[in-house]
Design a protein that fits this description.
Blueprint lengths: L3 H24 L3 H34 L5 H25 L2 H33 L3 H10 L1
Helix pairs in contact: 1-2, 1-4, 2-3, 3-4
Length: 143
């Protein structure tokens, strides 16, 4: 049985790996490879955020009755991340390394803080409070 903490933390690491590959290739001026890595990262990130927003958060909110707590904060941060990613898409298209890498630093800090809150607070709470968290993981795996 895989816990929510295990599955979603592993998903964070998968996203982090794709992000690091894109950033490394931009820094090296390898734009074609960077674009491929960036596209993969963006797809992985959006899948991850969608898993949370369409499956995990609604289950958490239904169980706790709290829609203005940690899930509201996480959704707000997701929107901030999406906004930065959108700006980075423009920099990638323009092959503007300075802008891309400047935004990349901002995104990395936001992402690290966000992931820590999820991994240390929200995911453990979800594993403890939700009925059949393993079934929820299975549903997210199919997403």
């Amino acid at each position: 049985m895989t816990s929510i903490v295990e599955f979603m933390t592993q998903d964070h690491r998968h996203c982090d790996d794709g992000y690091a590959a894109a950033e490394e290739k931009v820094a090296a001026g390898q734009w074609d490879e960077a674009a491929k890595s960036w596209t993969s990262y963006c797809e992985a990130l959006e899948t991850h955020l969608d898993r949370e927003e369409s499956i995990l958060f609604p289950a958490f909110e239904a169980q706790t009755g709290n829609t203005q707590g940690p899930t509201a904060v996480m959704r707000m941060e997701h929107e901030q991340m999406r906004s930065i990613v959108s700006e980075m898409n423009g920099a990638m298209t323009a092959r503007d390394a300075d802008t891309f890498l400047g935004l990349a630093e901002t995104l990395m800090i936001l992402t690290q803080q966000h992931n820590m809150k999820e991994e240390q607070v929200l995911y453990p709470m979800s594993d403890q409070m939700l009925n059949a968290p393993d079934m929820l993981v299975k549903q997210m795996q199919e997403e």
